[in-house]
């Protein structure tokens, strides 16, 4: 559903395996920089509703902003 709704589809990995590879590299880089990342479960429908409410497209910039908002609400969990 994310791929079909993203306005920047070209910027998203084509497969779950490719996404996981990018995710794991990102985790490694964050931890190397002293940042402890959080896991945030995202409901795509909630994301799309939020994007529409603020008048923005579903792009990486606004997905990141949405996730940051979820973290501020305490919805992030430590990754083990």
In short:
The protein is mainly alpha-helical and 80 residues long. The protein is built from four helices and two strands; from the N terminus they run H-H-E-H-H-E.
Describe what this molecule looks like in 3D.
This protein has 80 residues and is mainly α. The chain has one domain (2-78). It has 4 helices and 2 strands, in the order H-H-E-H-H-E. The chain has a two-stranded antiparallel ribbon with strand order 1-2. The longest helix is centred in the first third of the chain and has 17 residues, at 16-32. The termini are far apart. The model has no long low-confidence stretch (mean pLDDT 94).
Structural shape: globular
Number of helices: 4
Q: Which structural class fits the helix and strand makeup?
A: mainly alpha
Q: Largest sheet, described in full? A: 2 strands, antiparallel
Low-confidence stretches: none
Strand content: 5-15%
Overall average pLDDT: 94
- Approximate helicity band: 55-70%
Radius of gyration: 13 Å
Query: How many discrete domains?
Result: 1
Query: What is the helix/strand order?
Result: HHEHHE
Strand order of the largest sheet: 1-2
- The N- and C-terminal alpha carbons lie at a distance of 27 Å
Number of strands: 2
